Amino acid sequence: MGTFLTILGQLLIALPVLIASITSVTGIINGLFNIENGKTKQIISWIVAVICGVAAVFTGAYTFGLGWIDYVIGGAFGLVAGGIANKFYDVEIVHKIVDLIYFLFGHGDTVRAKRAAKLKAEK
Fold first, then answer.
1. Shortest CA distance to 53 belongs to which of 81, 90, 31?
2. What pLDDT score does 15 carry?
3. CA 75, CA 55: separation in Å to the nearest integer?
4. Which of 11, 14, 69, 94 has its CA 20 to 30 A from that of 120?
């Protein structure tokens, strides 16, 4: 239980820092190479996210005393932060799962109406 609380505590501290780092580094890379494609920007952001998570472990920003597993946890932290930085909700499968949960609790019509209005506004 102590290790879990340590991981959770460090995640709560590391996550905002990782999100800011990912957003900044990705923005710099996209600006330097003049990247305009949205998919390419997302791929770069995910790669930067994992590298930032592993780099945080490598530099000692957070460690759990688990050896090489620390790097796996760091990569996972990077993925979580990358998901948040990349608007995780915009990933289609995540969007469908969230819609399903809303629907199961009786809010499906509201979600569909908002989505239809958003699509109509984009056209």
1. 81
2. 74
3. 9
4. 94
